[in-house]
Amino acid sequence: MDDPFYLFMHIPKTAGTTFRSIVDEQYGFQNVLTYYNQNSTQLLDNLEMTLQAGFHDYRALIGHFQYGVHLPLTWPSKYVTFLRDPVERAASSYYENVKIMSPAVLDGDGKLMSLTDCLREREQFFANQQIKMMIGKGSMETIDAHDLERAQDNIQKDFIFTGIAEYFDASILLLSRIIRWHPCAYGKLNSGTSKKRLKGKDRSTLRRINYLENVLYENARDNLLAEMRSAGGKFDAALAELSKFTAEATKNGQHAAHALSGNHTAIKIFMNDA
Questions:
Q1: Which residues of the chain form beta strands (DSSP E)?
Q2: Secondary structure (3-state) at 102
Q3: CA 114 from chain center: how many Å?
Q4: Is the pLDDT of residue 42 over 80?
Q5: pLDDT tens for residues 47-105?
């Protein structure tokens, strides 16, 4: 296997469900290890052994794991992840936890707490979670400016690509050229979890407690926008074409990623222009 083993770090509420479908299409679901809703870290602890055994052509790991799983590996590896506006991601996380009645949003009597109450009682659960995953810190721990620097350093050193959820199609197109994926279309999955309007006070609180993460997000977003601009007209044409296929797939209920079979000349030209 000439390519590195890819570690697709799925930060919750960052379009990861759609991305997982794309990864399965690219490698075949049987060749992708998944780490979701695990009761133990056994899969991560034994990852090196699993790859070295060579019984299966595993190409990637995807799931809700933190930075650091690469450290025991002798196999070459690279991370890929997506970031999302910290305020929107945190709010979406709250409503997702409400939907499943997670203990994270319940009070001591088991009653559902409002977002305002959660931010007062469990601020850290909604603060800087993307940075925490980038540096391997616990969800209820606090972070400081040094942790932001660590996250930025980790991205520079070990992440082959950092996408932006708000520019998902553009991110997929750029990533596909970097790691030589074949063009595919996909419908948007799990995109309607939270479209609720945030109260001004809650929005202000989320902005305040995620100010460090906003720096990380804006840097990554600006880098992506710069890549999009430098890619030029071929990229613009390919993005318009991909967006058309994606819109059609969503409209037709084709949510799972699938190889493009129709005319996609602009995407082919862009992909071969590396």
A1: 5-9, 32-35, 60-63, 77-83, 159-164, 184-185, 258-259
A2: coil
A3: 26
A4: yes
A5: 999 999 878 889 999 999 999 999 999 989 999 999 999 999 999 999 999 999 999 99
C-alpha angle 227/233/235, rounded to 5°? Answer: 50
Q: Are 115 and 45 in contact (CB under 8 A)?
A: no
Is 22 within 8 Å of 13 (Cβ atoms)?
A: no
Q: How many Å separate Cα 242 from the centre of its chain?
A: 19
All residues at 6 or more sequence positions from 11 whose CB lies less than 8 Å from its CB, including other chains: 64, 81, 82, 83, 84, 89, 129, 130, 133
What value, to the nearest 5°, has the Cα angle with vertex 238 and ends 236 and 243? 95
pLDDT of residue 193: 44
Is the pLDDT at 15 greater than 80? The verdict is yes
Q: pLDDT higher for 113 or 191?
A: 113
Q: Is 121 helix (H, G, I), strand (E, B) or coil?
A: helix
Structure tokens at 127: 């603060």
In terms of C-beta density within 10 A (0-12 exposed, 13-18 middle, 19 or more buried), how is residue 215 classed?
Answer: middle
Q: What is the pLDDT of residue 273?
A: 79
What residue spans of 122-210 are helical by DSSP H? 129-135, 145-158, 168-179, 200-209
- Residue of 267, 77, 246, 254 whose CA lies nearest to 174: 267
